[in-house]
Design a protein that fits this description.
12 helices; 957 residues; membrane; mainly beta; five-stranded mixed sheet; transport; Beta-barrel_TonB_sf
């Protein structure tokens, strides 16, 4: 069918800079003869292509979530919606407390959030220094629908579109007013959520303006309030409580100062010093006992972190003429979030990884070994968990977005063309506060020499020496909760950090028709983009100087810019002939020139073939890339405490003659034993911080993705649609940071001196005290699987209208190797810390409406996982006695899990809607994972043993 009206001119136009997927007709006036109106078909633009077509199905698989779909799920953020789709892998969210920062991300195909491109109205959104987009900066109130392209698209959109593209389409051309509120909480009485949204839109014959204001408040859940998270490891009770107890503890309390002879001030002990000073004598100390004195730090943590978000959104268009339109939109979003950990496990002395001046001086008034009290005057290695003040981390993130542009259309040589030019600006400013860390300079002064003068304990330069002005003596051996406020105020400080991420771009696009082919009109799109990315991380001066008890880090700051040009062709070869109701091809290519690593070209090829009207066969091959992030390039050195096994240690199980010889050549003695925090609360963790940093020589990751699929809509079963797609993604030169074990292996096994230069040992005992970790283009990844989408709209009955749907993703392969020379390992079905590799994820839904009443039932399925058992012989793991060729290899099975959600709604006579819903109807417990971090279940699962119940009301005017 040949389309000749001016509606085609408007339908194939680029409404927005990066290819917004807006359905329906454009806004310019029709000028064609009225008798041709019957042949006009509206064209739509679907994420993954910038050329519009009358067919919503493209050569690439796209999942569409409408506003109605989203509002049936009873969630309060776009992140929760996206992380429920079956193609989503694990990503950071509000359940991440230790290690979280209040952000929520999306990781398609479990390939990492930085390899999933997030667009808003087809344009790039601001990303973090690490290259990921925080979905909490996008208010759900402004969303019209979400399109998820489950395929690579770097030829269309540029960097980051390796695993797929999420395109969030905002509300447009809205008229009227709407008020929406959501109130909910878990059946345990916690995790309260409240939202208020108000949207208003108005139009005239020249334009439209939409404004939306929203406020979301999400409350916390404490880990101690759920059985599965109340202990560090569910089922082991106090066995893995922290050795950094709430009461003051001496680590070298033996007759000869043995570090393994632990003495502790017992709970409830009464100090014997004058004037209320809490000093404890040697005979008051008791041997440290795990069952009595170890500290349950897990119960003090948030299980679900609190957050508030406030947003104002404006969007408008104005027709300057019949062929030129001005468009603009703006957003302000503020997020306030918080995480909480147990009070800091403060310690002093080199044996616990601190400077020597943090030992409790033998001349301290609070040292029970002070010679004044008949002791031997030894300096004391000590610890005291600061239960007097929890560690609290707060974020205030302000996101600004602005877009302004012109778009228009014109006719040339009997062909219709559309153009647009625009400027896109995004910025996030973040201020962080860290409360509960200690100023180690003040700690060192506070545990130095002190004595009683005029009824007051004061810091002195030496016994009988001058008083140190401003110094407050610190008693680290106080019982839990009894450190005086004056001492706490002296040793604690609040760190203030600042971050910024900024992105701005100029774009210009042209699209239109080229020539008539047997299958239809050949279309094209072409454009240019110039973009700049910049950002910084400016830590508190005390943190940067290394004076904080927490991890220190240096400032990060960097920027890069790029210029790009792209072109895309749609080639319809055949239509309405036997064996080819449709046969069309698409090709695209993009040239990108980066200021930091150079240029790259990425192309794609796709096809669509309809051998019969009911069946569509589609396929796509695409090249992709991901540019290194600002953090990967310019990250300042940051402390990191890591777990590793030193292969030079004489008790290392894999020690060979070659390793022993190379270690000896490096000056490591034969009887060397690695010292770690084993038994101190974090198994195998180094006592000394290693250094993470950026690599300015990092290059781009490259990928190749392939899809092949079928879409079947049988005419003999009206309302049934089935789509089945095979997909494969191969990534080369993936950025990864070598592990400590890999670095040591390269040094002592392979003899690679460049890796030996990355670490140093302490001369006194050969312990590794410094090690440098930077990202490198080393790794390879291959993922492969199948997606199935089934939707069926039942024939309407006297009992109402039923609709059923199934969305499933099956992963057949997820292989990775640290280097291209290594043997890859397949992670499918395995669980690693914060990394569940489900073989199958699926969502099924059944929707019923009858008159003004409706009910939706949603089931979310996660397949079983297997993990290596870290506690063999404890009777915890499901396969405690499993053995392989190397001996005992215990494993634990995480059973398949299905959550059920239900929502009932009623349309009220006054144009309002009331909704009642329950998520996790049966209060399903998450499968216990013994390799999970912080809690005994992975944070991708729902809060255990809890139903979330909510009420929503929507009023339209």
């Amino acid at each position: 069918m040949t389309l000749k009206t001016t509606k085609l001119r408007n339908a194939i136009s680029f409404a927005l800079v990066a290819g917004t997927a807006v359905t329906g007709t454009a806004f310019a006036q029709d000028a064609a003869p009225a008798e041709q109106e019957a042949t006009t078909l509206d064209r739509i633009e679907v994420t993954g292509s910038r050329i519009r077509s009358v067919d919503a199905e493209t050569s690439q698989p796209v999942l569409v979530l409408s506003r109605e779909d989203i509002q049936k799920q009873g969630v309060t953020s776009v992140a929760e919606v996206l992380n429920r789709i079956s193609a989503a892998g694990p990503s950071i969210n509000r359940t991440f407390n230790n290690g979280g920062d209040g952000s929520s991300e999306i990781s398609l195909r479990n390939l990492g959030s930085s390899r999933t491109l997030v667009l808003v109205d087809g344009r790039r959104w601001v990303s973090s220094l690490g290259g990921s987009v925080d979905l909490n900066t996008i208010p759900s109130s402004i969303i019209e629908r979400v399109e998820v392209l489950k395929d690579g698209a770097s030829a269309i959109y540029g960097s980051d579109a390796i695993a797929g593209v999420v395109n969030i389409i905002t509300r447009d051309n809205y008229e009227g007013a709407e008020f929406r509120t959501h109130i909910g909480q878990f059946d345990e009485g916690d995790g309260d959520r409240q939202t208020i949204e108000a949207t208003i839109g108005t139009s005239n014959d020249r334009g439209n303006v939409v404004m939306s204001l929203s406020r979301v408040e999400e409350g916390s859940v404490m880990a101690g309030d759920r059985e599965q998270s109340a202990d560090p490891v569910y089922g082991l009770g106090s066995a893995l409580y922290s050795g950094f107890s709430a009461n003051g503890k001496i680590w070298n309390g033996g007759p000869n100062g043995e570090l393994s002879n632990y003495m502790i001030v017992p709970p409830g002990a009464t100090g014997i010093g004058p004037d209320g000073q809490q000093r404890y004598a040697l005979d008051q100390l008791v041997p440290w006992n795990v069952s009595e004195h170890a500290y349950n730090y897990a119960a003090d943590n948030y299980l679900l972190t609190p957050q508030t978000r406030t947003a104002l959104y404006l969007k408008g268009r104005f027709d300057l003429s019949d062929s030129i339109t001005f468009r603009a939109d703006a957003l302000y979003n503020e997020r306030r979030s918080e995480q909480q950990l147990a009070g800091f496990p403060l310690s002093g002395g080199p044996a616990l990884g601190n400077d020597a001046d943090t030992l409790l001086s033998g001349d301290s008034y609070f040292n029970p070994y002070n010679t004044i009290y008949g002791g031997d005057g030894r300096d004391v290695t000590w610890s005291h968990r600061l239960t007097e003040q929890a560690r609290v981390y707060q974020q205030n993130v302000k996101t600004f977005h602005t877009y302004v542009g012109l778009e228009g259309s014109f006719q040339f040589a009997d062909r219709y063309f559309d153009w647009d030019v625009g400027y896109n600006f995004n910025k996030s400013d973040q201020e962080d506060a860290q409360i509960g860390d200690a100023n180690m300079r003040n700690v060192a002064l506070g545990v130095g020499p002190s004595e009683l003068r005029d009824g007051r304990v004061v810091c002195v330069t030496e016994p009988g020496g001058d008083v140190i002005d401003g110094c407050v003596p610190f008693n680290p051996l106080a019982p839990a909760g009894s450190v005086p406020a004056e001492q706490m105020d002296y040793i604690l400080f609040t760190a203030q950090d600042a971050f910024q991420n900024r992105s701005e771009s100029f774009t210009a696009n042209l699209s239109g028709e080229i020539a008539q082919l047997p299958g239809g009109m050949m279309g094209f799109a072409a454009g240019v983009e110039s973009r700049k990315e910049s950002g910084f991380d400016r830590p508190d001066a005390f943190v940067a100087a290394g004076y904080s008890s927490g991890n220190g880090r240096q400032p990060t700051e960097g920027a890069y810019d790029l210029d790009e040009v792209y072109a895309e062709l749609l080639i319809p070869l055949l239509a309405d002939v036997p064996g080819a109701q449709l046969l069309e091809f698409s090709v695209a290519s993009r040239y990108s020139d980066y200021s930091n690593f150079g240029d790259t070209v990425n192309s794609k090829f796709g096809f669509k073939w309809k051998p019969i009207e009911d069946l569509l066969v589609r396929g796509n091959w695409a090249e992709g890339f991901r540019a290194p992030s600002i953090s990967s390039l310019y990250r300042g050195l940051a402390d990191s405490y890591v777990q590793f096994g030193d292969i030079c240690s004489s008790d290392y199980a894999g020690r060979t003659a070659t390793i022993a010889a190379n270690c000896a050549a490096d000056g490591v003695p034969d009887d060397f034993i690695q010292q770690t925090n084993q038994g101190f609360g974090y198994f195998g963790q180094t006592l000394f911080p290693f250094s993470l940093g950026g690599n300015p020589n990092a290059g781009p990751e490259t990928s190749t993705s392939t899809t092949l699929g079928l879409v079947y809509s049988p005419s003999y079963v009206e309302g049934l649609d089935i789509a089945l797609d095979w997909w494969n993604i191969e990534i080369e030169n993936a950025l990864s940071t070598p592990t400590t074990s890999y670095i040591l292996d390269q040094c002592y096994v392979e003899g690679n001196q460049s890796y030996c230069d990355l670490f140093s040992r302490r001369a006194s005992d050969s312990q590794i005290v410094e090690l440098f970790l930077v990202p490198q283009n080393l790794s390879v990844i291959e993922a492969e699987g199948y997606d199935l989408d089934v939707n069926y709209r039942f024939p309407e009955t006297a009992w109402g209208q039923f609709n059923a749907g199934l969305n499933a993703s099956y992963t057949a392969k997820w292989e990775s190797a640290f280097t291209a020379e290594d043997e890859p390992t397949n992670a499918v079905g395995m669980y690693y810390q914060d990394d569940p590799n489900w073989r199958l994820r699926a969502n099924a839904n059944l929707d019923w409406t009858m008159g003004d009443f409706g009910v939706t039932w949603i089931s979310r399925y996660y397949s079983r996982l297997v993990e290596d058992c870290p506690f063999p012989g404890e009777g915890l793991c499901s396969d405690d006695d499993r053995r392989d060729e190397n001996g005992l290899a215990a494993r634990n099975t995480l059973g398949a899990t299905t959550y059920h959600d239900v929502q009932a709604r009623y349309e009220l006579p006054w144009n309002g809607t009331v909704k009642l819903g329950v998520n996790n109807v049966f209060a399903k417990r998450a499968p216990t994972a013994y390799n999970a971090f912080a809690n005994s279940f992975d944070p991708q699962y729902d809060i255990p043993d809890s139903r979330y119940m909510y009420l929503e009301y929507v009023q339209r005017f």
